[in-house]
Amino acid sequence: MWLFNRKGPSGFSASSTAEEVTQGIDGTGLTAIVTGASSGIGAETARVLAMRGVHVIMGVRNMSAGSDVKEAIVKEIPSAKVDVMELDLSSFESVRKFASEYNSLGLPLNLLINNAGFFGTPFKLSRDNIELHFATNHLGHFLLTNLLLDKMKKTTCESKREGRIINVSSEAHHLFQYSEGIRFDRINDQSGYSRFTAYGQSKLANVLHANELARRLKFGIASAVEILIFLIIQFPLALSPLVPENVNFSET
Ligand SMILES: NC(=O)c1ccc[n+]([C@@H]2O[C@H](COP(=O)([O-])OP(=O)(O)OC[C@H]3O[C@@H](n4cnc5c(N)ncnc54)[C@H](OP(=O)(O)O)[C@@H]3O)[C@@H](O)[C@H]2O)c1
């Protein structure tokens, strides 16, 4: 379709593949975390990063599916450096455990790709009692990003290579929205719930998170980490510090 083939300023279009976009790039020496890498876009991102020499850490909730993907990558690319770590974005405890384990591994972190996404019915609460789309797609990634930010800044300073934090959002961030935008005071309100608007709301939070984090890092921490917001296929990848009042993200 012409819409997907229309090239943007980058020279790529919505139908460009990950291999095309990364052609000629040497990722040797870089380390990336890709969330939700057990299927779909996350699995392909992990595969192509590994193909370019990046050490990929797959953050997955289904370890068996994650191991299958890893096995397929290593079979195709014998030199691939890929590890699988357990991560359930819908649980703050799991996110904290993942970040703590990662931070203690002694690995650098150049790229954080917040890709995992949930889209479903019926209305459900996470283990932390937060509507599941918002909890998984936004809050889990928000917390993960906060807990890994120091590691990324340190890596950037030591390696003198800019880091990248990428949130995978969706066109749903503007196509499916509650009329008032994000319902901060009614995240768990079932009235008027639809999976489309709940998903759209979480994806809008991804975009706002990216915008705000980019603003803070750009003006607050000089050029320690540049945030790249770009399009993979036709959706923006993004980040944001948008948290309901009852959620505490302090590390202690
Ligand atoms: N495909 C599209 O057309 C499209 C369009 C716009 C935006 N997106 C965005 O692209 C991203 C990837 O989607 P996809 O199309 O590749 O979908 P997908 O194949 O369903 O992949 C989603 C991944 O997220 C993981 N995930 C879901 N809940 C999780 C949780 N609580 N903790 C950890 N991982 C979790 C899934 O793991 P399990 O296998 O364990 O479920 C799966 O690996 C999502 O953020 C989505 O919103 C996709």
TrEMBL record:
Gene3D superfamilies: NAD(P)-binding Rossmann-like Domain. It comes from the Eukaryota. Transmembrane segments: none annotated. It holds the Pfam family adh_short. This is Short-chain dehydrogenase TIC 32, chloroplastic.
